[in-house]
Amino acid sequence: MTDLPGSDTERRTGLGPDVRRDIEPDARRDIRIQPDVRPDAADPRASTVRVFIALAPPDEAKDELARALRPACDAYPRMRWNRIEDWHITLAFLGELPAEVVPPLQAPLADLAASLPPVELSLRGGGHFDERVLWSGIDGELDALHRLATGVRAVVRECGIAFEERPLRPHLTLARARRDDPTSVVAAAAGLSAFAGRRWPTERLHLVGSDFGRGPGPIRYRDIRSWSFTGR
Questions:
Q1: pLDDT (tens digit, 9 = 90+) per residue, 18-70?
Q2: Distance CA 27, CA 31 (A)
Q3: Predicted local confidence at residue 173, as pLDDT
Q4: Angle, nearest 10°, between helix axes 59-75 and 184-191?
Q5: Nearest to 60 by CA among 203, 227, 178, 197
Q6: How would you class 100 by CB atoms within 10 Å of its CB: exposed for 0-12, middle for 13-18, buried for 19 or more?
Q7: Active site amino acids
Q8: Could you tell me the pTM of the whole model?
C-alpha cells in the first residue's frame, strides 16, 4: 500500500526491493499482481478522492496467505482477485471526499498513532459476504483493534467529516465474484477454513486514497500518508 520511492520498477509496482525479494514470484503471480500506474491521491488538483483509514499486514503474513490462496486462484481464475499490495484491514471507510478536507485529517491521525502501541493480530480462516466477496478473518488483540477503530472514527468526526459508521467487522478482502458466478467465493472460503497465519504487530496507521480505476477495471489504492504506532 505504501508508495515507495526508488527505481522505475518500484514506482510502477509500488513495491521496494526488499518487498519484491521477500514475496515469492509464484505467490505474487497467483494473485494477479499487475503493473501499477497511479496518480497522486493527495494531488490538490483532484476535486475528490475516495478515502479510507486502514492497517496493512506485513509482507511475511501476506506471503503466507498468498500461498494458501494458490489452489483457489488456480481453480477460480474468473474471480476478481485483489492485488497483494492492496490487502488492508479497513478501520473507517470515508467514501468520496472533497480533496481539500483530506489534509486536516493528517495531524490528528498522526497524534493518535503516536499515542498507541502496536496491536498484535493474525490472519485466520476465510469467509464471504453474500456469496460475492471473499475475505480472510482477523484474530489476535481484537479489543485493542476495536479501540483503535473507535479512536480513528472519533478523529474523523472531530474533523467535521460525515461518513457511514458501520460496525467494525475486521477482515481482509481478497476477491470478488462476477455476477454470473454464485459458487466460487463460497468454495474458496471453505478452502481457507483451516488457514492460521503468524501473529504480527501492526506497524503503521494508513490514510489511503483512490482516484484511479473507477471503471470496470481494478481499483488502485495508495497511501496518502502513514504513521508509526509509537505509544507504550
A1: 333 333 334 433 333 333 333 344 444 458 899 999 999 999 999 999 999 99
A2: 7
A3: 95
A4: 130
A5: 197
A6: exposed
A7: 88, 171
A8: 0.77
* DSSP at 102: S
Q: Tell me how crowded residue 45 is: count the other CB atoms within 10 A of its CB.
A: 7
Give the residue among 9, 23, 43 at the shortest CA–CA distance from 87. 23
Lookup result for grid cell 503503521? 204
The CA distance from 107 to 30, in Å, is 38
Query: Comparing C-alpha atoms, which of 219, 223, 218 is closest to residue 41?
Result: 223
Distance CA 71, CA 165 (A): 35
Q: Cα 131 to chain center, whole Å?
A: 20
Task: Tell me the residue type at 183.
Answer: T
* Amino acid letter, 23: I
**Residue 214, C-alpha cell as written in the block:** 473507477
Do the Cβ atoms of 87 and 60 come closer than 8 Å? no
Record the cell numbers describing residue 190, joined without a space: 471453505
State in Å, rounded, how far the first CA of the chain is from the last one: 26
Residues forming a β-bridge with 90:
54
130 grid coordinates:
453474500
Give the C-alpha separation, 232 to 5, whole Å.
30
Find, among 62, 45, 46, 79, the residue nearest to 1 by Cα. 62
Local structure of 110: helix, strand or coil? helix
Q: What are the CA-CA distances from residue 96 to residues 3, 50, 217 (Å)?
A: 21, 4, 18
Summarize pLDDT for 178-229 with one digit per residue, the tens. 999 989 999 999 999 999 999 999 999 999 998 654 555 556 788 999 999 9
